[in-house]
């Protein structure tokens, strides 16, 4: 029986999520401003600037705030789609290409010829057909590298770089099931 690691997920770094979180805060501010303006007294600044101007505009203030909020939620979902998932039968990673188009790639352990860990920001998989696959950046790169190094050692996949087997975490620290 071959080594099958427990499923472990590594999400995107906080820096990748930050713009969509800022967008969500701004959209929530717009929704709150519209709700406050609708509840304010006629003739007040918020009522005049948001409700009255929105009634004469192309799109109403409530519709605009709703669209802004929906776009912020979509941005947050798109930012969180990135990441790497170690599965029992292989490796899966998700990334977002131009204009929010998602890309999902799966590799079986037998397809991986070498794991390159010595790049400063990314982890590279050298595949059996001579191609290379760059894994997307994750929030905890050191933990991902340690998990991949452990799987590579158990499955006899060569590793370039890494910390060595003496520095690998003990059983159960990376989320493996103990037998």
Category from helices, strands and their pairing:
alpha+beta
What's the rounded overall pLDDT mean?
A: 86
CATH T-level fold name of the largest domain: PH-domain like
Number of domains: 2
The side-by-side strand order for the widest beta sheet comes to 1-2-3-4
Q: What is the CATH-assigned architecture of the largest domain?
A: Roll
Distance between the termini: 13 Å
Radius of gyration: 24 Å
Shape from CA axes? rod-shaped
DSSP summary, beta strand count: 8
Low-confidence runs: none
Order of helices and strands: EHHHEEEEEEHE
Summed up, the helix count is 4
Please outline the major beta sheet.
Answer: 4 strands, antiparallel
| Residue fraction in strands | 15-25%
CATH top level class name of the largest domain: Mainly Beta
Range of helix content: 40-55%
Describe the structure.
With 179 residues, the chain is of the alpha+beta class. 40% of the residues lie in helices and 20% in strands. It folds into two domains: 88 residues, PH-domain like (Roll), CATH 2.30.29; 65 residues. The strands form two sheets. The chain has a four-stranded antiparallel β-sheet, covered by helices on one side. A four-stranded mixed β-sheet has the order 7-6-5-8. The longest helix is centred in the N-terminal third of the chain and has 26 residues.
């Amino acid at each position: 029986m071959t080594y099958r690691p427990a499923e472990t997920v590594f999400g995107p770094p906080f820096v990748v999520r930050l713009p969509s979180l800022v967008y969500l805060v701004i959209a929530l501010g717009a929704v709150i401003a519209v709700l406050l303006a609708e509840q304010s007294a006629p003739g007040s600044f918020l009522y005049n600037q948001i409700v009255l101007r929105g009634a004469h505009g192309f799109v109403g203030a409530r519709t605009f705030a709703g669209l802004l909020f929906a776009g912020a939620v979509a941005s947050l979902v798109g930012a969180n789609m990135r990441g790497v998932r170690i599965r029992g039968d292989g490796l899966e990673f998700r990334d977002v290409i131009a204009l929010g188009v998602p890309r999902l790639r799966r590799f079986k352990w037998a397809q991986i010829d070498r794991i390159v860990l010595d790049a400063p920001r990314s982890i590279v998989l050298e595949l059996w057909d001579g191609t290379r696959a760059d894994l997307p950046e994750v929030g905890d790169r050191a933990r991902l590298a340690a998990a991949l190094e452990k799987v590579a050692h158990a499955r006899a996949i060569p590793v370039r770089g890494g910390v060595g087997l003496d520095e690998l975490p003990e059983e159960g620290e990376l989320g493996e099931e103990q037998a």
